[in-house]
Specification:
Elements lengths: L2 H4 L15 E7 L2 E5 L5 E9 L6 E2 L2 H11 L11 E11 L2 E9 L29
Antiparallel strand pairs: 1-3, 1-5, 2-3, 3-4, 5-6
Amino acid sequence: MTKDEVFKSKYLKAADLKGKACVATIESAPYVTLKGLDGNETKKIVLHFKAAQKTLPLNATNSDAVCDATGCPDTDDWPGQRIELYPTRTTMGGNAVDCIRIRRPSASRPAVAAPPPPPPSEPGEMTDEIPW
């Protein structure tokens, strides 16, 4: 058994994404009081997703990322918005740790235009291309 199987969490962790990005629809984003590992209480925005059992408490970086991804600075406008969660690494306390980051879903990103094809050459026109 893995540590995550033994000590189940109600919060989403980078390991839950299994190395892949996923798109989720925000169901709600309440501002709630959470107790940290040190026992201190802090208030955080917690994302609840449609058809998901785990929630995601937001740090300042991910809160800003949700605003950027949705175009909505007000959490009241977040329900129904789709975001992409992806695993990556960050530095915390001088150590590299796994984390979840947020961005606009890939399908919503503007596609990079392919460069135009070269103009067709006239028959019999010499080119610098070598045919092998």
